[in-house]
């Protein structure tokens, strides 16, 4: 199977593997990331987990140990400039550079801690992503982007946010959304926006509006016939929800086909 088929199969597994999905999506951006390179990234996560001390029991001890290793000794953290780099959303590059977006640094924290047996989960906050240790109702929450600083020392709105563990596929969708936003601000990278949409649509659950967004992107890239066909298909879905919106989208499809003349 090719990487997209592998991605789709993993996303539909009973227990999707977060690291594997992150590496498979990264392969869309980096053709050099073949099966052997993915294995090396997984081995690196195993190696880091093996550097954690044995015998840890409570959430605070786990949070302190993982933070001391990743944020302290190894220097994993983020900077404002990381938002300007596609590599900040690619797991193998984050492992190499030890820099990345909050959600990718959190993936490193999660995967290393899980491999070592820690009670850990991801927490998606508005505009940020962090990691919790222990019972979500009474856990220790740290910010990997800040090198693992305790969230209690951060903004009050983050400290008071609901602590609902993020599901694996929700994390992957959020990563793909970040990539799409990055590419959308850079028209020369419309191909990146397209593959991020393609992968998001392979997830078992995704916003239906992504189909319309993909159709518009195809038209912008000059694939008028294909984009128009997808607009028509999305309009059929919208008929059951908003007939006026469906009619408007069909009008866009007509306009897209007219560009073929």
UniProtKB/TrEMBL annotation:
Describe the location of the Protein SirB1 N-terminal domain by residue ranges.
43-155
* Residues in the signal sequence: none
Q: Name one Pfam family in it.
A: Transglut_core2
> What family, per the record?
Belongs to the UPF0162 family.
Identify the PANTHER family for this entry.
F-BOX ONLY PROTEIN 21, SI:DKEY-261L7.2
Q: What is this protein called?
A: Transglutaminase-like domain-containing protein
Q: What is the originating organism of this protein?
A: Streptomyces katrae
